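Support request from a user on the community tier.

User writes: "When I paste my structure tokens into the form, the page sometimes reloads and wipes my input. The last time it worked, I copied everything first. Here is what I submitted, just in case something in the input itself triggers the reload:"
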């Protein structure tokens, strides 16, 4: 396995971005798609919306397509191939695939490349919906592992090694184990022992590391899944590094994963006209890691630390949620904030922060997750502190209602499920409408769900179609709905009712 090399600053070299630059320098006349012709079409918009025309026109200049000399993502041999090689070397992979459909595309590709219909795969249950969609597309037979909950914070952590081993022993034909690490809250485990265990069963470790594109790039950051030995790792470069939204990478190492199959699947699920601006932004994001090295993360980490110190020392209203278990590491660029005594829900706090011009990454009943990405913006943390003080002053428990149920109780309500599920056969076929009905949420215990229920963010399903509904899960869903959670997939977003499979008359 190669070590990540970014501690040694390198020369600036962005082959993909440079190729676009060189193409434009030739002042090409476009008789090809895209129709906006390097953004020139925006001139037509100028008289209506000069500002938008200007900004958008600039953005479109780099929006080129596959021409001779611009390479092809699906059969790269020129600038894209070179940019991918540089990314592999930087992130410590043997091969890297650029993704223009986010980690979503990477998760789909990983699963589809490893799992044929009916084949068994072991999956951490609290996974992003892209993984569940992948399992349905693959028609996989899925054994779910419950993530554990960190006792000091209540935050979800990966399933225990013992649970993974038990699942591997029970299902030795499993094609892969798929884990999500770090979580949306930035808590992570070292995956090295997981990789060793999974490999000792001659199977693959796949990791959704969407929130950890920066892991392993600096000594103060947790180690990366690649370094731990995972076979394939998906990272949202756009989340914590500087790529454009949808820019992500799929890294692989070793010979357990079939790279030809991966390349085929990627060509199937990604556009045949992948965005050059997104690909170039991946190239630039990688080059910035290399030339700026550790310095790239120092300011962001320092800003997050100083914000946390301010909370600890001077705020009676807020607290930082972080694990005190040395087995787990928190992302130093991410802060999980909660209110003391629950004077305000996480959703409410997020909404109020927005009123002061501070936009958080996400919220749940108890927490607001704040991302202090690498560039620390001058004054931003002070603005956040002023907003938090103003909110605490304006809020009173009677105004917003106290959360009476402690967070641990809320979370454990959603995890009263066996640590290892029976295999669940995923299918793309939807249940026929005539076989389903809506029942009141309070009457749904023991019924079989006919829809997925996905609180968003974080986009992690708490219920899958075909799954029996546990009574405690209903309490949890209802508490989330009352606290203002938004639900994707639910036919009744207010969660008064839920779609279930019709029971056969006996
Ligand atoms: C754990 C996890 N995996 C995958 C994704 C999908 O990432 P992307 O937005 O890059 O498609 C997300 C999105 O938030 C996520 O939280």
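"...and here is what came back when it finally went through:"
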């Amino acid at each position: 396995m190669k070590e990540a090399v970014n501690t040694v600053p390198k020369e600036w070299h962005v082959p993909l971005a440079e190729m676009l630059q060189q193409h434009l320098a030739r002042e090409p006349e476009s008789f090809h798609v895209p129709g906006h012709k390097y953004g020139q079409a925006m001139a037509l918009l100028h008289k209506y919306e000069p500002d938008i025309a200007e900004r958008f026109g600039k953005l479109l200049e780099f929006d080129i397509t596959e021409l001779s000399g611009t390479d092809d993502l699906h059969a790269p041999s020129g600038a894209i191939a070179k940019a991918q090689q540089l990314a592999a070397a930087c992130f410590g992979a043997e091969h890297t695939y650029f993704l223009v459909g986010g980690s979503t595309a990477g998760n789909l590709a990983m699963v589809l490349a490893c799992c044929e219909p009916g084949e068994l795969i072991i999956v951490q249950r609290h996974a992003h919906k892209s993984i569940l969609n992948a399992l349905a597309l693959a028609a996989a037979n899925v054994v779910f592992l419950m993530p554990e909950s960190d006792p000091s914070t209540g935050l979800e952590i990966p399933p225990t090694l013992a649970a993974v081993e038990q699942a591997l022993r029970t299902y030795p034909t499993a094609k892969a184990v798929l884990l999500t690490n770090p979580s949306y809250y930035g808590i992570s485990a070292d995956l090295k022992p997981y990789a060793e265990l999974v490999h000792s069963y001659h199977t693959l470790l796949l990791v959704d590391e969407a929130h950890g594109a920066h892991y392993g790039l600096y000594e103060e950051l947790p180690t990366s899944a690649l370094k731990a030995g995972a076979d394939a790792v998906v990272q949202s470069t756009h989340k914590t590094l500087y790529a454009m939204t949808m820019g992500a990478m799929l890294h692989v190492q070793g010979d357990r994963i079939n790279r030809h199959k991966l390349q085929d699947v990627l060509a199937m699920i990604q556009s045949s006209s992948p965005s050059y601006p997104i690909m170039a932004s991946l190239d630039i994001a990688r080059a910035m890691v290399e030339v700026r090295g550790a310095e790239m993360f120092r300011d962001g980490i320092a800003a997050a630390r100083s914000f946390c110190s301010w909370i600890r020392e001077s705020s009676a209203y807020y607290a930082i949620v972080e694990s005190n278990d040395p087995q787990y590491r928190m992302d130093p660029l991410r802060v999980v904030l909660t209110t003391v005594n629950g004077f305000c829900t996480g959703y409410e706090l997020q909404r109020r922060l927005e009123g002061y011009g501070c936009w958080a990454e996400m919220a749940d009943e108890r927490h607001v997750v704040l991302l202090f990405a690498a560039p620390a913006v001058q004054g931003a943390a002070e603005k956040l502190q002023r907003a938090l003080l103003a909110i605490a002053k304006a809020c009173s428990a009677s105004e917003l209602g106290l959360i009476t149920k402690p967070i641990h109780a809320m979370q454990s309500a959603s995890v009263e499920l066996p640590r290892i599920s029976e295999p669940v056969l995923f299918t793309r076929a939807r249940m026929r409408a005539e076989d389903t009905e809506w029942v009141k949420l309070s009457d749904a215990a023991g019924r079989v769900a006919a829809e997925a229920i996905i609180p968003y963010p974080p986009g992690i399903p708490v219920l899958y179609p075909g799954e029996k509904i546990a009574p405690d899960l209903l309490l949890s869903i209802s508490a989330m709905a009352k606290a203002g959670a938004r639900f994707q997939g639910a036919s009744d977003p207010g969660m008064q009712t839920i779609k279930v499979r019709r029971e056969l008359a006996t």
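Agent notes: The reload is a front-end session timeout and is unrelated to the input. The radius of gyration is 24 Å. The chain has 17 helices and 20 strands. Escalated to web team.
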